[in-house]
Amino acid sequence: MLIRRAELAGGAVGDVLLADGVIRAIGQGLAADGAVTLDAAGGCLLPGLHDHHMHVAASSVALQSVPCGPPEVATADDLARTLAEAPGSGWLRGVGYHDSIAGLLDRHVLDAMRSDRPVRVQHRSGRMWFFNSAGIEALLAAGLPLPAGLEQRDGAWTGRLFDEDRWLRDALAGTPPPFAPVGAALLGWGVTGLTEMSPANAAAEADHFAAQQAAGALPQRVLLAGSLALAGLPERPDLARGPFKLHLHEHHLPDWEATLQAMRQAREQGRGTAVHCVSEAELAFAIGLFDELGPAAGDRIEHGSVISAGLLEALVRLELPVVVQPTFVAVRGDQYHADIPAADWPSLYRLASLQAAGLVLAAGSDAPYGPLDPWAAMRAAVERRTAAGTPFGPAEALTPEAALALFLADPRDLGRQRRIAVGEPADCCLLDRPWQQARSRLEAGLVRGTIVGGALRFVRSEPAPGQRPIA
Fold it and tell me: Is the bond preceding residue 465 a cis peptide, omega within 30 degrees?
């Protein structure tokens, strides 16, 4: 493929030749007999965006589920109406629930809302499910050994399931979903790669990813994080083994020595450890682990939701990259302001102060627990406002260039920024205008084309749904 008249770094306009999966040449008036030609007409050519933290299977299923949390659902009456009006038969699956709507749900509350079919509602943290009585009966009928996370009180099932997604999938006799809806959405936003961060990922999940890529359902390159069972995953250009995922829970922190041993085993596999840290206690625990072992290539902190001054100093000392989710400020900031003491607000979802301290940052969506659109994340990083328009740590705002850079980090080396340069992979995101015009918009509708491995996989000739027309 030959891309003509593309804006490159620094504002220069030139031609870019893609061949054999890499950028072969950059210059003026390049020729390539028989090559597909795309006229960029001065639009900015970027490396393809990379979502550094998401959950593909859950995102695919969420697209077929009923929203049960803000902003669509804000009250218990909203939830009852949403569940009552949901069409179909069999399992009714809801996602995105938050305690502010009706507290911690149980089967009695859900029975009052919908009792004629089995219902399961996922908390937006991803850590728990709530079932009505019909749902509990369906799970018990599977005949599997019951997990510790299926809650009982006074000998009766409450309808709550904590941290047992693998057991739930087995009980439902579920098969992994097709990834085509997610792959297509990401292409439309210029995303050519993703890091899949589900902690239970093992050989079966790797096989499903490979099959979906082979079928064309998931065009993106994938860095697959997960369990230690990924040790034997063969290296492929489009599916590579990522870090060991350690998912901490503040109230049930794992055994110290066993966790250190798991991290050592990951290092023997040539993998770092990615530690889920959404509270101060979890981050302190993670820092203690890295202090004892010393940092290694591939180690990283996921989320970094709460980073106090003292913990920031430790992160800098250990040179640990942090993978952030800027969109949470926009979609959850009002709830944070309501639930969290004002004295703690400066520690929440920091960005600019982390970069100023010298930390390496990258960004992911955490989809489906956050919006999948990377342009919404960039906009949130720049604006730092809640859904109600309230400023949220404005001193933490990034420039548009710094926000974009969060999605241009090399997934295998977060400290390296990918570039449009000879020898780099031919994965590109073409905007419909120069960067100086695009930087004030940061909308998905700016993406004109997406190229993966030198092949044009998405092209837009009209504004995306919901986007303003582009002049």
Answer: no
Asked if 302 and 323 count as a contact pair (C-beta separation under 8 A), the reply is yes
Q: What is the structure's pLDDT at 145? A: 94
Convert the pLDDT of each residue in 358-403 to its tens digit.
Answer: 999 999 999 999 999 999 999 999 999 999 999 999 999 999 999 9
In order of start, what are the domains of the chain with their CATH numbers? 1-48+418-471 (2.30.40.10), 49-56+178-416 (3.20.20.140), 65-171 (3.10.310.70)
Tell me the CB-side half-sphere exposure of residue 411, using CA atoms within 13 A.
30
Name the token pair of 268.
């023997």
Residue 368: is the preceding peptide bond cis (ω within 30°)? yes
Candidates 223, 197, 241; CA nearest to 366 is 197
**Residues 164-223 pLDDT 10s:** 988 998 898 877 889 999 999 999 999 999 999 999 999 999 999 999 999 999 999 999
Would the pLDDT of 425 be above 50?
Answer: yes
In order of 124, 253, 349, the CA distances from 279 in angstroms are: 16, 12, 11
* Beta-strand relationship, 37-39 and 2-7: parallel
d(CA 413, CA 424): 14
Per DSSP, the three-state class of 240 is strand
| Three-class SS state of 123 | strand
Average pLDDT, the chain: 94
> Cα(399)–Cα(383) distance, rounded to whole angstroms?
9
For tokens 């390296």, the residue is 416
Which helix (H) or strand (E) segment holds residue 322: the answer is strand 322-324
Per the document, the length of the chain is 471
Average pLDDT over residues 240-256: 95
Cβ–Cβ under 8 Å, residues 35 and 437: no
**Secondary structure (3-state) at 225:** strand
3-state secondary structure 77-120: HHHHHHHHHCCCCCCEEEEEECHHHHCCCCHHHHHHHCCCCCEE
CA distance 163 to 150: 9
Q: What is the largest CA-CA distance in the chain?
A: 78
- pTM value? 0.88
**436-450 in b/e burial notation, b at 16+ Cβ within 10 A?**
ebbbebbbbbbbbbb
Show Cβ contacts of residue 71 under 8 Å, excluding neighbours closer than 6 positions.
331, 387
- Take residue 185 and report the two structure tokens written for it: 């959405």
Gap between the Cα atoms of 126 and 226, Å rounded: 16
6 - beta bridge partners? 14
Q: How confident is the model at residue 64 (pLDDT cuts 50, 70, 90)?
A: confident
Q: How far apart are CA 428 and CA 409, in angstroms?
A: 14
